[in-house]
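User: quick one, fold this
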Amino acid sequence: MKNFTRTETIRPLSSLLSRVTFHESSLLEKASVEAVLARDGLCTVITDVTPFHPRDYRWPDQPEDTGVMECGGRAFRLEDAVYVALSPEGEFFSDGDIPVKKDSPGWRYFAGHVISTDGAEIAPGKAVSLSVDEDRRKYLSRAHSASHLMGLALNRTLSRLWRKDPGNPDGLGFPNFDSMAMERSKIDLLSVTDKYHMGKSLRKKGFEKDELVSDPQSFGEKLNELVSAWLARPSPITIRAENYELTGRRFWSTTLGGVTAEIPCGGTHARGISDIGTVSCSLEIPDGETLIIRTTVR
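Assistant:
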């Protein structure tokens, strides 16, 4: 674990301020520098407000936003956008160096903008302009929304394979296979790869996988039919946020087949179903306990 070699802040650590606006589809914010954290020729800058979506250090499914920070007439291309954590003892940690979970008592979290500079140009209190690359954000947002459609459609498609109610319904009322079996998710520009584990734990909850393993193609066809039917009925996508803190709870919501579905999610999204595009999903079962679904957006 490597700590920052220099830390400058505009106010006492207990009162550092920072709001995120990426969940509102913001791409540009005028901000003030709250803190500058330096090491290895890089500075991680915390601002009082930011449109940047940082890569989550616990569940890095959606990549970080890219873009530019401007200060005093000079433009700095971001090297990274990451989580920064402040411990109860007043020590900063960044990204993979953060040693605790998000719900650890006394810890606070901020979006960190990593730039290549010794920090002389960027100081606490200075005004900056933060600009997110629009195309990259749009593609990642469309893919992320498509992944939620796929997950809800997957839950409905596999619902008859449960021999008993596992007690974890999704936003449409079906057993939440997507949540219970998810092992890893990777969002790329206009595609998502989700990996599910169908092992002993899922079987104990009542899931019977044999039919899926023997004929994944038929389940894939039903999954794609359902996603296509939902895409044919445009509906707004909204993000409900409890607050503007980086770790505040946010919820993705839309109407599918006349029913409003809501999913907890901290990423960025398309503004509506019609903005996602055409979606196709392919299913692969490389072994008897692994399901891989690749969702492609066009």
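User: anything notable?
Assistant: The mean pLDDT is 96.
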